[in-house]
Amino acid sequence: MVLASPTGTLTNDGVMMLRVLILSLTLFTGFAQATVLQRPITLDTGTGELFGSLLLPKSDSPVPVVLIISGSGPTDRDGNNPDGGRNDSLKRLAWVLAKHNIASVRYDKRGVAASLAATPDERNLSVEAYVADAQAWARKLKADPRFGKLILLGHSEGAMIATLAAPQVDAAAVISLSGTARPIDQVLREQLARSLPPPLMLRSNELLDSLKAGHTDDNVPQPLQVIFRPSVQPYLISLFRQDPAKAFAQLKMPALIVQGSNDIQVGTEDAKLLKAAKPDAELVVIEGMNHVMRIVHNDMKRQLASYKDPNLPLAAELGAKIIEFIDGLRT
């Protein structure tokens, strides 16, 4: 990467590298960090109470606020999943934002962690309910005088929830972080084809076909129960109805697409498809970043280890790009 032109001035790459370096230094030294208020926050949805965490930088004027929406399954407000390990990805991202004068709220989805009681039976979960909850959080934050512009940031499946929720709450912007562009049943077929033996792959395709058509199927082989167990099938039916790229194309507000090149769950092609759906969106591909926002070599052993290591630092460029995008909304 060339940082300076022949005249000695910084190139665009040089400016970006300098920003990343400054961000990295401030994260480690505490230079120019804001005083941050950390508090629990709750939302009464009318069909159950949801629990979250608020990070609010001390400020004499309203600050931008990011509603952070976690990914699929029982992933909690911090980005942790009892099936996939603790990595604190969303918690660490929230602190990066807070230290640069950007507030955030991240929350446990209904049926997950502290919000389990809101929908204890996963048979009653749906994408529509998750979208309604995100919109309710958004309205709560927009009504709070401590906050300025509202940005919806979704990670993985949460990117789709953010995209679907944003138009109805007049969000200032949407950030899609490791979000897929294709319907999720297509993504699942691709992922399963890399790991299942032919007989199980055949059965998984039959299950996907049935669910895509809106029909449940209780005949699930034991190795496929974790994905297709009967109790989660109603949610999968609601999920497979969605077309993320089509929804993204309908967004009228600014949008940022962030994707890691070493993400083993969502590829850069999905990011490019989102960009094609909404050409005025900004696309950032972070070299070496994986699904839990760390710079990790592209081999399976190191990838899986990173999902369970909260001490690995986030990719510095991730925070720099998100902060730069949000700062641009203030002008």
Summarize the structure in words.
- By secondary structure, the chain is α/β, with parallel strands linked by helices.
- Helices cover 40% and strands 17% of the residues.
- The protein has an eight-stranded mixed β-sheet with strand order 1-2-4-3-5-6-7-8, sandwiched between helices.
- The radius of gyration is 20 Å and the shape is globular.
- Mean pLDDT is 91; it is low at 1-11 and 15-33.
SSE map:
Blueprint lengths: L11 H18 L6 E9 L4 E9 L5 E7 L19 H10 L4 E5 L19 H16 L4 E9 L1 H13 L3 E5 L6 H10 L4 H15 L12 H4 L4 H8 L3 H6 L5 E6 L7 H10 L4 E5 L13 H7 L9 H14 L2
Parallel strand pairs: 3-4, 3-5, 5-6, 6-7, 7-8
Antiparallel strand pairs: 1-2, 2-4
Helix pairs in contact: 1-12, 3-4, 5-6
Short description:
The protein has 331 residues and is an alpha/beta fold.
Strand order, sheet with most strands: 1-2-4-3-5-6-7-8
- Terminal-residue CA separation: 30 Å
Distinct helical segment count: 12
Q: What radius of gyration results from the CA coordinates? A: 20 Å
From the structure above, extract its key features.
17% strand, alpha/beta, 12 helices, Rossmann fold
